[in-house]
Amino acid sequence: MENLGYPSIKSIYKHLHQHPEISWQENNTTDYIERLLEKTSFRLQRFVDCPGLVAELGQGKPCVALSADMDALWQEVDGEFRANHSCGHDAHMSIVLHALFALEEKQAEWKGTLRVIFQPAEETIEGALAMVEKGIVDDVDYFFGLHLRPIQELRSGEFAPAIQHGAVQFLEGRIEGEDAHGARPHLNKNAIELGAEMVQLLNNIHMDPSVPHSAKMTSFHSGGKSTNIIPGRATFSIDVRAQTNEVMDDLVTKIKSASHALSNLHGISIEVDKKAQVPAAVISEEAADYLEQGILKVMGKGALKPAIQTTGGDDFHFYTIQKPELKASMLAVGCDLKPGLHHPHMTFDQSVMTDASRVLVETVLGVLGNR
């Protein structure tokens, strides 16, 4: 497609990878995508109150949407905290843009509406809900997302037509007490010791072992520079995951009960509140079938693998929770990704991006071209 005036998928990826932006700050990324799409026939819509972009081509029914996340993570890389694309969103945007270019060239082969959503703030679990509130998917019939998968799940060149993400909740906790002199531990409750007890209580919560789940403390802040003060206050975070929404509800209930029990035992205020959540995936078999046929047509039977089950989460699934009539599924892209998602030095086989783009093209043509 470079011969048609479009940049190569690798050049798009290189630019996006070198210019990461964190959630709700993807303004330069939006500008870059808009500049690329101004050369196409797509109708473009930007938002007044946030980054992100919607590109649309065609008209009428059915309406098929593709989604690509835009944001990077904020993490420590080689001793420096900075924005970093270690979740593959730079690849997702590149793959979807390349598919968009191809579908414009093949417009004579399909009828209906193609809508492409470049979504901000997936990492903060806020972007999909913002798009829903703006009505972007109100008239969408089929919705397809995608995500690079770790080498432990899929090898390079393998694809799956669905990702059964689990439910995720981020909890924030507070221990509200008073400081005491280091020589007088009987005059207060040591917030650090209470945090250690909370970790033990989390480890002692038992759920159905046949349903993957976990609850772990991921941050704890207490005390200061004076080492002769017993801190009475602390804040902490808990990452909670479960493969089903039902187990998630039970797990969070038990965590809050544990915090209340600890609070009552020591006579000190310990509160745990929900910060954000992602529901478990609700997958449309019909949408997954279209992805499966796209995989088979582009890559052949040997590349097709069963749906991926993972306790990782994605805010893509808010679309189907908020709009149950949506027929949606996510393409799982095998690319020998290692050491793992969110690792500061994550790498993957970039040559797979072209194949992933072709799979999305054939999937859309399967819906809009009645193949």
TrEMBL record:
Keyword Hydrolase listed: yes
InterPro entries cross-referenced by the UniProt entry: AmhX-like (IPR037484), Amidohydrolase (IPR017439), Bact_exopeptidase_dim_dom (IPR036264), Peptidase_M20 (IPR002933), Peptidase_M20_dimer (IPR011650)
Signal peptide (residue range): none
Cofactors named for this entry: Mn(2+)
Residues the record lists as binding Mn(2+): 87, 89, 123, 147, 342
GO molecular function, one term: hydrolase activity
Lineage top rank: taxon: Bacteria
Family annotation (Gene3D superfamilies): 3.30.70.360, Zn peptidases (3.40.630.10)
Keywords attached to this entry: Hydrolase, Manganese, Metal-binding
Domain Peptidase M20 dimerisation: 174-258
SUPFAM superfamilies: Bacterial exopeptidase dimerisation domain, Zn-dependent exopeptidases
Cofactor annotation remark: The Mn(2+) ion enhances activity.
PANTHER family registered for this protein in UniProt: AMIDOHYDROLASE AMHX, PEPTIDASE M20 FAMILY MEMBER
Protein name, per record: Amidohydrolase
